[in-house]
Structure formats: C-alpha cells, structure tokens
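Supplementary Note 3. Input sequence used for the single-chain structure prediction.
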Amino acid sequence: MPDRQRVIVVGAGPVGVVAALSAARRGYAVTLVEAQTEIDSSPRAATFHPSTLDMIDGLGIMDEFLSVGLVARYFDYWDKPTRTLVARMDHDVLRHETRFPFVVQTEQHKLVRMALARLGSMADVDVRLGTTVEALEQDGRAVTVTLHGADGEERVAADWLIACDGGRSTIRKALDIEFDGYTWPERFVVLTTLYDFAGAMGCSPRSYFADPDEWANLFKVAGDDLQGRWRVVFPAGVDETDEQAMSDESAEARLSRIWPAQEPRELVHRNLYKVHQRVAAKFREGRIFLAGDAAHVNNPIGGLGLNCGIHDVMELLDTLDAVAVGGADEALLDRYERRRRTLNIDFVQQQTVDNKRRLEEKDPEKRRARLDELAAIAEDEERQRAFLRRTSLLDSVRRSATID
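The predicted structure, written as discrete structure tokens, is reproduced below.
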C-alpha cells in the first residue's frame, strides 16, 4: 500500500477484531483499542451465517474457526404448546450459491481470541487492552485520539477510525450521533444447560419455538470444552422481577415447557437483559465510521446482529481500499453509509422484528397461517432457497452491490 495508512479500531469484540485483522492483512497499520483488560467470555452471539462464513474464510482462520464450533446444516420451527415440529429448513439448498451451505455455531469470544492471536504476530499492529478513548478530534487528513491506559495518556493519530465499541459506543456519543429506535418492553432471559435437547426431542441445533404466551429460541454451542451445551432464550414477563426470572424454579419451569425432564437440569449460566431495535442516524462522520453494535442493535432472534456487523467492516475496508489504494475520490466513502445503513434497516431490523412477531403471534388464525406458511416453505425447495437467502443475509450481500 503506498504511504502505508493507519487505522484505529475501537473495540475488540468480534466485529472489531475482524476489522483489525482484515485491515492488517490488507496492508494497513493497525491500532486496536479495547477498554476491558480481558476478553469477555460470557455467553453472547454464536451464530455465523453462510454469507459471513464467506467473509471469515478470507481471514486465514477458517480451519481453526470450524474446529472450535459446531456445523449446523438444519434449523427448525416448532409449535411449542403442542411440542410439534412444524418445519425443518436445510441450508444445503444453498449449495450452489455459497461455499458454506450451513451455519456455524461458534461462541464469539473464540473468534476474538483466534483473531487476537493472529494480530499479535503481525507487523505494525498495536493491540491495547485496558485502554480507553478519552477524546478525539479530526481534520481533513487524520483522526487523533487521546488514549488512557496503564501507562497514562497518549495521543495517537491515524488516517481512519472504525468504532466497533458496542451499543453504548463512546465514539458515537462523542460525535453526538442519534441512536434512533426503541426498546422492547420485555427483557430476554438466557439459560445455558448441559441437558441434551436433541437427544430428548430430536430437534436441530438451532430451533425456534412459536408460542403466543412464551416463545423460545434453542441452540447448541460447543462450549470451551467442546462437549456441547444448549442456550435457551425466553421473554421475561413485563412485570416479572429479576429474582423471579432468574430463579431455579422459574428456569426449570420454562425449560419444561419446551421439553420435560425427569430431574431438574443443571444450569451453567443464566442472564437477563434489555433488548433494543436501534440504528444510528448516520454511520460516517468525516474519517470516523461506526460499525456493528455501535451503528445498530436488534433483537437476537435469527442471529443477525453480529453477522451484519462483520458485513459492515468488510464493506468499509473494501471502500477504504478503493480510496487509499485505488485512488478513488473520498466522496466514495459516503457509499458505506448508503449501503450499510440501508441494508440494516431493510434486512436486519425488518427480519428480526418479523422473526419475533412470527414466534409470539397471539391471534389464532394468523398464528395458524404463519405456521402453515413455514411448513409450505420447507416442502418447496425453491421457496426454501429464497427464504434462506434472506435469513442468511445472502440477499443482503447481493443487494449491497447494487447501491451506488
């Protein structure tokens, strides 16, 4: 790269490390800044769709990535009150459209660790954990940040800054960019158990349960020990207290409404959190760009938020390359916002809201119609292919290329 350019990436979550690793592999000097001193290994996003696997494959980590996760070719929709399988979708119908016609269930902290390991061996890469951004400024040529770490304060300049610092983004707030949208009235309960749902009821590693009273998401991850564990997501009652939602009795009752067990199930983790649907009013301010949760957040049904964030940074780096290497006018940088903000609204926000409404539908006739439609899609290969192209964000990737 002529006149090797530097990129500051703020946030060493999965989106941030992908941005840093991809930038370094493209020839940028990279400074990666993370406020936490250790990688957060608590259960969070773990679903990587075919469109995203195509991108991860270009980072040189795919073999390791697959070795610590689970390949999930199928996913299910169930009618929870009757414990009846409604539809089983098969990603193999996408075999002629992607190199990876399946989903990989790999906990996000595993991706972070393997990317950091690669970055640690690369030239002109500076990874700073336990470091915060205290101030930033920019002009037409550079972005300068004031960093605070173990050795005190330091000013660092770069050509570009990519903010991947989460839904409470320090960078977004410093730029005074509105985060438009809303918060769902109910919180989500996440329970992780070693109980083998697939062995008990024959479900797929990703299964969605429609229920007008209490929908659920169920999916299997490998765990750090690679022995497998199941995460289950439920809505908490609007008036349910933290203590009620997190109690052993409540947890077992919720799990039993999916499938009863002879003995209470051991829980290895539980969590309760608020859920938002929000999109930043803009994704670019001069030489600073928002990506991932700093730019958009959504409910987790369908596993699209993390995937969209990785798409953000890959799109952004392609655009930066066109300017920094290809000599394109910097006006092209506005295309990043035109593409990523539009696609997040049209695909991710809409799809995740639709996913939630499909599972929680209360009107008996509409609910029956939704379930019948899913069954019909599963029985028709062409309809299933179209459905999976959208849910796996393949359509989003193709649509991106049409936005100038």
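The CA atoms of residues 322 and 328 lie 6 Å apart. The two ends are 25 Å apart (CA to CA).
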